[in-house]
Specification:
Length: 509
């Protein structure tokens, strides 16, 4: 009898970001067959009609007057001006309206379909990243990066960690005030070569940018995309409980700085200690191929001006997001405008500039696709009608617990929900109308639930593949298992310290 040998998928190394997301998409499809389908009624506001509309799980739509009285009748404890003022734009889940619906089982064909749809949905972020890549390619072609990097490395001699600390501080500040997350990918191309020239590795790059920004977002103080919108959805002012978030931010940043200092000192003393030492040659070739530290290019006034324009794009972006109401299309347009100015003053030929732009953009295609594929996972869960079921089960799980146990359990529930909905604003409007009223039943203030949401959700976003992590790792060519080895102490810290802070708040309430 002839034996049949079936092909087996083998991984010589840890799976890449693309493979991880493909596997997670398959699991999401399987979950639509195992988890009952269900949904809450959703409430939205139309600025055109000036009316509220409530869509039931069965598809019926009821139009309501945009008044506080109507919200109170529905048990939605949110001020009406949060809707009419445009602060809450996404559909709000209406409490006590969950019901089972006809299952929407996903199949193998939906795996690739969700990947395509997720990429289309993420087009605004993808265009921003491609424009950023093109901008970097143009600046590289002018030699401004090379000459500026050499000048900076000489001035930073002996004070290397001071630069790391400064970047961590700025990123944490951006995270706590304006939720600097997806926008942070713009900082890698300018900061990674600097960190490498100072003798550090790829882990330090991700730690100083992504992890520091995430630590700031974890302990958000006035971040409009998490704590503000979550407080609004919980029906309380965002200033409630801010003193505990400020204390958390100080302690969290201190813990991050100490951890970064320990790791940086170890890598500086012995480069082989690096968690990514096996890949350091490939990583350095990716970011330092155009930089020759032994061949000093003159740092001419023209190159200084080009570098200044390049750097100017980033504080301009932060201002636009936090004050100007910008989103990715506007950010991409501002980066493109500055790129055109750089092209005009560069002195390079039109052909060289166009080729440099397209080459730079092409190097970030992989990162762009990762963002689209991650969104595809969430589309499967939403279209499969199981996201609300998971939220309903989570709220039922914590309901009726004793105060301290209840709030710690809520933090862990938000950590789980952070994987299902890896969007701070999306999770806030979906979960807060359901979870915040549960605090009333155990006699604790709702602002403590907002803290539990912040600390639980972001502890998960440090490592969830459906968030920004895999796009970041793809940009730096780092495998997921090596990042986990570095980040897990910070995840344990956030959950442990967060639980302690929550219990203290309950005790003081």
């Amino acid at each position: 009898m002839t034996s049949v040998v079936l092909p087996r998928l083998r991984f010589k190394n840890f799976p890449s970001a693309f493979t991880i997301l493909f596997i997670i998409t398959l699991l999401a499809v399987a979950c639509t067959w195992m988890i009952p389908a269900g949904a809450y009624s959703k409430l939205t506001y139309s600025a055109e009609s000036g009316m509220l509309s409530m869509a039931t799980p069965s598809g019926d739509v009821t139009t309501l007057a945009a008044t506080q009285e109507e919200l109170d009748k529905l048990g939605v404890n949110i001020k009406i001006d949060q809707f009419t003022g445009g602060i809450i734009r996404k559909p709000i889940a209406v409490p006590d309206t969950y019901e089972r619906v006809i299952p929407v089982h996903k199949g193998i064909g939906d795996v690739t379909k969700s990947m395509v749809e997720g990429t289309i949905e993420g087009a605004d972020v993808i265009v921003f990243i491609l424009v950023l890549g093109g901008m970097i390619g143009v600046v590289n072609a002018t030699g401004a990066f090379n000459s500026g990097l050499i000048a900076l490395s000489k001035k930073s001699k002996g004070r290397e960690f001071g630069l790391i600390f400064s970047v961590c501080f700025v990123m944490a500040l951006g995270g706590t005030t304006c939720g600097l997350e997806e926008e942070a990918v713009a900082f890698y191309p300018i900061l990674v070569p600097i960190f490498l020239s100072l003798g550090y590795d790829s882990i330090v790059c991700v730690g100083a940018i992504f992890m520091a920004g995430s630590m700031g977002s974890t302990f958000s103080t006035i971040n409009p995309f998490s704590v503000v919108i979550a407080s609004n959805a919980a029906g309380i002012p965002f200033t409630a409980g801010i003193e505990f978030r400020v204390i958390g931010l100080i302690v969290g940043f201190a813990a991050l700085s100490a951890y970064m200092y320990w790791y940086c000192k170890k890598v500086k003393a012995d480069p082989s200690f690096s968690y990514t030492y096996a890949d350091h040659e490939e990583f350095e070739a990716r970011y330092m191929s155009d930089v020759d530290m032994n061949h000093e290019l003159p740092f001419t006034p023209r190159r200084k001006l080009i570098l200044a324009l390049f750097i100017l794009a980033f504080p301009l972006m932060i201002w636009g997001v936090s004050v100007g109401g910008w989103w990715f299309p506007t950010m991409a347009a501002s980066f493109l405008a500055i790129t055109i100015v750089i092209m005009i003053i560069s002195g390079l030929s039109e052909k060289t500039l166009v080729e440099s732009f397209t080459k730079g953009a092409s190097e970030l295609v992989g990162v762009s696709l990762i963002i689209g594929l991650a969104r595809g996972v969430n589309l499967v869960l939403e279209q499969g009608m199981i996201s609300d079921t998971i939220l309903f089960a989570a709220s039922d799980f914590v309901s009726g617990m004793e105060g301290s146990v209840f709030i710690v359990a809520q933090m862990l529930v938000f950590a789980l929900l952070g994987f299902i909905v890896p969007s701070s604003s999306g999770l806030a409007v979906l979960s807060m109308p359901i979870m915040a009223p549960l605090a009333d039943t155990v006699g604790i203030p709702r602002e403590i639930v907002v803290s539990a949401y912040n600390w639980g959700q972001y502890a998960m976003l440090y490592l969830t593949p459906t968030g920004l992590v895999l796009a970041t790792l793809q940009m730096l060519g780092m495998s997921y298992n090596k990042w986990l080895k570095f980040v897990w102490p910070m995840v344990v810290f956030v959950l442990s310290f967060g639980a302690l802070m929550l219990v203290i708040q309950v005790a003081m309430a």
